[in-house]
Amino acid sequence: MSNAQTAARPRPASDVSAGVGLSGLAALFVWVMICRNWASIADTFALPGPHAPMSGPYASVATLLVTGTVMGLWSVLADKVHLRPSTGIDWSAPRPLSETLDISITKIAGLWSTWAAIGFYYCIARWYWDGQYLFAMEVIGVAALPLFVLSIAYVLWLDRYLIEPRDHVWHFGAMLIGREAWDAGEVKKHWRAWAIKGFFGAFMISILPPGFAQVVNADFGAMEYNPVALGSTLIAGLFLIDVQIGTVGYLLTFRPLDAHIRSGNPLLAGWVAALICYPPFVWGTMGRSDVLGYEVNTVGWAGVFATHPMLLWLWAALMVCLTAVYAWATFAFGIRFSNLTYRGVLTNGPYRFTRHPAYLSKNLFWWASTLPFLVRDGSLTDAVRNTVLLGVVSGIYYWRARTEEAHLLAEDPKYREYYEWMGENALITRSLSWVGKRLQPRNPPLQPAE
Questions:
Q1: What's the predicted TM-score (pTM) here?
Q2: Which residues contact 329 (CB under 8 A, 6 or more apart)?
Q3: What is the per-residue DSSP string for 138-192?
Q4: pLDDT, tens digit, for every residue of 37-63?
Q5: CB-based contacts of 41, cutoff 8 Å, min separation 6
Q6: H/E stretch holding 34
Q7: Phi and psi dihedrals of 56, rounded to 5?
């Protein structure tokens, strides 16, 4: 197909509307304002309990309920996602419960066994019982019993409407029970999806409280003339958007919301590239890792521009903008955000300009905030080491992006169409592709044999 023909094609429609993410963003903002002003609200209505800002860890978990409910309602009432063929649901022809009961029992057996295995994994992995993960284990422990009970009603209800109720979890349950034929490929798909939810779900819950407390307790008036404090707090607020909306994505993987995991990444390289970016493989941020530490003796942006107020404000604004793009790339997913998964194709928001806006903005933020080549003691060794290691980190994210593309290209013709459209029409993607082609070594033409 010629470039002119490709350019003439419209951008493929997104499986996720802009409205669902924006509704979640609005709900998050309203809830944070309620938490910040809870003392006044409690005084006005003479409510019992502490009359102070609600900045505790469980208030951060309650935020998930608020934003998740609003986005779920938008998805159903505005986007009508429950009516899409991709849900695999036919609401017009429910089967009798007696017809699907055996299927549901098999599925519940597989689901409960999966949760038990994830719980066992949490128990034996010692990093889940220290530091930030302690809160995640507490939340999961409280939620476990209600989830086991509610799963019975949910599975019994949904199986009556599913066109094919023998899904991935059913095949795993059938393998455990041993009465019916099961497909090993389906079992692998089931475990890839739940391994992703188990690993990343606990991590996302563990990082909810600190950022939430920082934003709720922030005194913006006191930092009005301080670009470092104001910029850092605004960045924390944008990361709060990323974490809150992202965590909702891991939780609401329901078929009636068309947000189920179609498949987890089957490529080993994809898992390695993703997991290396998170605890326990890397603690904190990439910059605090012993292996990939790129902030050794660095001055950082605040130190570099400390004597240049205008540059300090401009640099703070740059980093806020980069973080805003990163947060936008997350809430644009609505309730479908999660690593290593295929849950539909997203083509709007920042994904109109580049296929990987989150990775691009995140890495540019690290370079801009760290300035790894500027070190306190003038050590050339530290400057070179920091710069090279941050380059390695950026390389890991490039590798990660390519493995994700390989997964999605193999799954959905619509993504292949989006991939091609972006290569020809999206300014950033097209420009980066052009640079990449120019950097590739050119093989000399073959000489004819004499």
A1: 0.92
A2: 349, 350, 351, 357, 358, 361
A3: HHHHHHHHHHHHHHHHHHHHHHTTBSS---HHHHHHHHHH-SS---HHHHHHHHH
A4: 999 999 999 999 899 999 999 999 999
A5: 34, 47
A6: helix 18-36
A7: -75, 170
